[in-house]
Amino acid sequence: MVKELLGPWNASMFLTKSDLFPDRFKTFKGEVLHVASDYDDYPLVFGDESGLVDGTNIRILNALAVTLNFSFTTTNRSRDNSWGELINGTWIGLLGEVFSGAKNMTINYFTVVENRAKDFDYTAPYFYEGFGFALVIPPPLPMWRSLLYPFTNLVWTSVIAAIIMVTPTLYLLAGLADPDNKISLMRASLTIFGSLLVQNVKAPSNNVVRLILAFWWVGGLILVVSYTSNLIAVLTVPAFPPKITTIEGLAESNFRVGMIDYGEFVPEALATTQDQYLKVLGKRLDLVPNYASSDVSYDQMLDLLFAGTHSITETYSYLRNLLKHNARAKGKTYLLREQIYPGALAFFAKKNTPWKGKFDVGIQRLVEAGLVNKWYNDIMDDNTGQLVVQPSSTKERPLNIANLQGAFLILALGLAVTFIIFLAEVVLRKKAAKRSFNSG
Length: 440
What we know:
By secondary structure, the protein is of the alpha/beta class. It folds into 4 domains: 25-126 and 346-381, Periplasmic binding protein-like II (D-Maltodextrin-Binding Protein, domain 2, 3-Layer(aba) Sandwich), CATH 3.40.190.10; 135-140 and 240-342, D-Maltodextrin-Binding Protein, domain 2; 150-238, no CATH class; 402-433. It has helices spanning 17-20, 56-68, 93-100, 114-119, 153-177, 185-196, 207-234, 247-252, 266-272, 276-283, 294-306, 316-325, 356-368, 371-381, 405-439, and strands at residues 31-36, 40-41, 45-47, 53-54, 70-73, 86-87, 90-91, 105-106, 120-122, 127-136, 256-260, 285-288, 310-315, 333-335, 340-345, 348-350. The strands form 4 sheets. Strands 10, 11, 12, 13, 14 and 15 form a 6-stranded mixed beta sheet that branches. The protein is elongated and about 140 Å long.
């Protein structure tokens, strides 16, 4: 280290902070910064259709380059085809090129985490994001299920339990109130069911039993009207099973998790987390090999998704864009709103980089001016793809046979039961007539 003597101390020499810490990088004087980058990192860094490089982070660099007077180079991907992780004490991938000094900095999706902060300088954060999860929209339930859809399972269970309780209660009360005119258990059952099926039934003669039965009739009327109204509303709308909307729900489901093994910290974090739900997802994580062609890797990950056995995880913006532009995924997938491991995204440079402070100031100004968010939104909205959360239609349409499938099934079932009862009555009547003839 070369020491330079400034002479005896003189307070007038350092009246301001800039006197004590002079700005040595007011301009980079046309220097060329070599950036380790991967073009498969939408919307931060990506190659467009014309072969040019674009992205939110490229636009940040362009703005800084104009202000600080420098130019920069980028790379399509790292030399070892890795993203950037610490393996056996050695950094590989994009971060490895920066750590070794082969490149000045990297600008891809890297959050500020402990091991990176220890071995690298990082700039002021420019964006906050985490990893999202995608699932296939569950297929609509069979049309006959529309008969069950107006009520939840809890309501159906409550109705059945009420019938089971009220029928014997009515039978016992009618017998106690009027022993001379006891009703059979069958009649009690028909009285209870008849009110739910809007059938005319003969009420018991005892006024006390009628009063008690009136409460059941009022409740049955409410159930019937509610069910009929909801049934009319859902007959022409496909009924979908409940979607998973939270990390907790995903952990409690049977879905496994698919992710490309490109060196991110997520697999290790899931394996060592203390969160009970994330720990479950970590145990069910399946890593897809990171091939030289990213299309092959993502095709394999999407295969897991559409097999109906996996959800998939990736950085939220990249995953959103992937589903928008993939023909297989359009209108068939959705993203969970929750993200895991959200963090501050920053540029990473070699430790003790002297000009890092200039990038901090420039990036902070771009963030505060709203330019970073504007560039991000411009890029994310600059496409014709559409991520459909769940198909729906408000267009009026007439009922068809498929819509009434459940009603016709119930009708067929009812006719079958009626026919069986009719046959039973014919047989029993013939036997009774035969016994009467023999006894006569």
